[in-house]
Amino acid sequence: MPLRYSYAGSAAFTHDRLAHSDGYRSVVSSVQLEVRALDGDDLAATAFSRVVEIGPGNGVHTVALLRSLTARGMTCRSYLGLDFSATLLGLACDRIRNAFGGAVALQSAVWDMEAGRSARIERWRCGLGRDSPVLVCMLGHTLGNVESAERVLGHVHESMREGDFLVTGVTLWRPDVDSSTVLAPYRTEVFRAAALEPLRAAGVAGGDVEFDVRFVDGVIVGEVVFLRRVCVGPLTVPAGYVLRCFSSRRFARNDVLALLERTGFRIRTAVIDDQREHAVVTVVR
Q1: Has residue 3 been placed in a domain?
Q2: Can you give the three-state secondary structure of 89-151, one letter per residue?
Q3: What is the pLDDT of residues 134-145, one digit of tens each?
């Protein structure tokens, strides 16, 4: 089951609750690390005034980042949010609007970045009437939560113009950390509810399945085992059937850099936090 279904429809609200939990915040990089990466790059000043964010989640992190950039004189004037989930986009835009009012011109559009490129960025920038570069953000370990990071980066690259900037954050794989520590944020009731919400929306009760997570070769995998035979629409799922409903990859730093270069981006800066748990990279198309 694609992980993006855990953000759409009713699942957007369980994801919103998850995003407020301590476990979730321990997985994504901090605003301070992102600002360090952007501070260390001589990005064109105009790029900060026009921001595209792919996968803004519930908007809480976005508001914190835009406020931090504004405090450093890097003010966003126009913002485009892109996400698979229209519901999450609504939550994010409401929070940004409440924080900045009319100071930030807001637009949003639904985009499945795993399916192909988007023409929405080009239409948005043309509507602003300027040809200067834009800043594209893909933060919160979004890159680790897709089926193919390389394919997604290819779609992002095709959706940008030459000279545009991309900043992306990832969670790193530390082989010295035991799997129980890695899995701790995922073995909570709030995470279980978020992971199982798409199944619940399809009519599968929580008591029909057993959920567990494991860490294998740098990938956190969440699976359910059906405890009894269940009918889901026209389908009959037998007892004992195993369904993957969550997958999140951790990256080695050099693998991230190689991945970005392989998909056509040029590396500008790369910063890692003191715990060697998160990295933020800025690149140019």
Answers
A1: no
A2: HHHHHHHHHHHHHHHCEEEEEECCCCCCCCCHHHHHHHHHCCCCCCEEEECCCHHHHCCCHHH
A3: 999 999 889 998
Most confident of 13-17, 26-30, 65-69: 65-69
Q: Residue 14 half-sphere exposure, CB side, CA atoms within 13 Å?
A: 21
Q: Which is nearest to 156 in space by CA: 268, 271, 46, 284?
A: 284
Owning domain of residue 116: 14-172+251-284
Residues 214, 164, single domain; the answer is: no
Sequence-distant (≥ 6) Cβ neighbours of residue 210 within 8 angstroms: 224, 225, 227
> What letter would DSSP give residue 164?
-
Q: Which residues have C-beta within 8 Å of that of residue 8, sequence separation ≥ 6?
A: 84, 85, 86, 87, 88, 198
In a domain, 85, yes or no: yes
What does the block give as tokens for 11?
A: 């699942």
